[in-house]
Amino acid sequence: MKLIIDLDVYFDFICPWCLIGKRQLQVAIDKLKRTHPQVDVNIRWRGVQLLPAMPIDGIPFKAFYLQRLGSSMAVRLRQEQVRQAAKGIGVEIDFERIPRMPNTAKAHSLLSNALKLEDAKRHDLLLEGIYSAYFHHSENISDASTLEKIATYCGYEAGPIKAILDSPNVPFVSANTGGKGVPYFVFDGTFALAGAQPATILYQVMLESLEAKEIEV
């Protein structure tokens, strides 16, 4: 009998720890598939806009972090911490190449509404595509034409995507983690983890979620 773990993942595209957390989660899920092939993980991506007051076109990336952290040294230390964590899971992040800190409302709106157009696999490709465009290709993910290009590259038809991006009636409502920040993982509405946790921890919590299901039965 198939068992389902429902997993809500709260994230924002501009958060490198969310990208790192996604990679760690995939490692954990792959391990779960090997040890518990009868279990499927149903992921629901919950978009959180960390900077809702960000101008629509964003602001210069370096200026944003300098203002946020207070000094060039603090910025270098924070970014090096992130780079090392990312490198540990095979992800290269070059902050020097990122020109702007974007407003992510349009990207979140696209991702949430695109779920109605294609299956979960293509939806994940779109999520990966937006992450890659921002962290690896220095693209402005607050720009509608950029998002349309990413979506069509991921296999979506241009017409429905353009309709989502152009429609004023498809607002994005940011999810709320109750002050837990992002990434934030909630397993079966019961077990929660905050931060980019190691794959071993995520895997263990999935096992605990399965044990709880057995107790309920």
TrEMBL record:
Alphabetized Pfam families for the sequence: DSBA
Annotated DSBA-like thioredoxin domain residues: 7-198
Domain of life of the source: Bacteria
Cited Gene3D superfamilies: Glutaredoxin
Molecular-function GO terms, alphabetical: oxidoreductase activity
Protein name: Disulfide bond formation protein DsbA
Originating species: Acinetobacter amyesii
